[in-house]
Amino acid sequence: xxxxxxxxxxxxxxxxxxxxxxxxxxxxxxxxxxxxxxxxxxxxxxxxxxxxxxxxxxxxxxxxxxxxxxxxxxxxxxxxxxxxxxxxxxxxxxxxxxxxxxxxxxxxxxxxxxxxxxxxxxxxxxxxxxxxxxxxxxxxxxxxxxxxxxxxxxxxxxxxxxxxxxxxxxxxxxxxxxxxxxxxxxxxxxxxxxxxxxxxxxxxxxxxxxxxxxxxxxxxxxxxxxxxxxxxxxxxxxxxxxxxxxxxxxxxxxxxxxxxxxxxxxxxxxxxxxxxxxxxxxxxxxxxxxxxxxxxxxxxxxxxxxxxxxxxxxxxxxxxxxxxxxxxxxxxxxxxxxxxxxxxxxxxxxxxxxxxxxxxxxxxxxxxxxxxxxxxxxxxxxxxxxxxxxxxxxxxxxxxxxxxxxxxxxxxxxxxx
Length: 417
Prior knowledge:
Shape: globular
Low-confidence stretches: 410-417
Number of helices: 15
Structural class: alpha/beta
Largest sheet: 9 strands, mixed
């Protein structure tokens, strides 16, 4: 049996009593309110995963608020999203993150010297969602909208360690086995074939570094599922690129003691998959580029590591050797468990990932600071009522489209009013 503990607290599932945990969490949530935040594109509403997520949340009495941070192209799409989530019994805020009202708030902030309109994508969606969620709750669970295997144990496990006060946990991240069903295979390519050999190679190059040890302690460092306290949510910068998950771990590392950090077992897990990409500007290769850039920046910030181009060349050589060793280990594990495993294809992917190291290094040298959205405390220093303004804008947006959402598709103008 796996009892292993890491630099951070690892919460295993040894057959935990979910019924008891839920009863206890319902009790705890009456004193310390909770929220679930889901960043999403409108396209996710057309896939089955989000229906399962919504229907599970509907029955979670321990969740007091739901926040959806939505990117929608048209007023009609936003109206349908509001209608989709209207069956939830919890107070629900559907943020139209690129809508007129929210954009106006961000324009006002820009005019006062803080430009968040320069950031796009999931990072800005998370930042906006945390603003409202931190008004409503002391503990916030965040997860993506594409989880195929979702069930109510996910938010339960994420939130429980934060609300059980004697644990002293402020940040709790999910880990799991990424096993595909059709066919049965090992997924999670970026963690397996890039981050794991990368951290091994960096440790061999730079020796014992607490930040590298910290990252290595996470069993699935790229999981998009985590929970954090509202205080922490207000005090961390959100990465504005594809290195969001790794960059967020760096912010947690800088902000709180390791004893207040945990990871928890969600079991077997799967969600939609991205393409590897034809260059370092696309798909998983772009993700690897931004991840390495983030790690290099944090090593300099927190460990005073001076990185040169010679280091980048050395890293490429050491990475390939480590990656080849890991693919051999994955082959054994997969074959024993009767999982499909194309060892040649895995080696090809590691070579594509290895080529990204040079591009990541050049980006780091040209812009070592990277793209990070300022934390909420800075935004509140500019506009103290910013969160309330955002919440009021969301309420107004939702009220405006209530009647529109009841009309048949195609019956309303597709341009925002």
